[in-house]
Amino acid sequence: MASKQKIFTCLWFDTQAEEAASLYVSLFPNSRITNVSRYGKGAPMPEGTVLTVSFELDGTKFMALNGGPHFKFTEASSMFVECESQAEIDRLWSALLAGGGREQQCGWLKDRYGLSWQIVPSALVSLMQGPDAEASRRVMAAMLRMVKLDIPQLEAAYEGR
Question: What is the pLDDT of residue 1?
Answer without folding.
Answer: 60
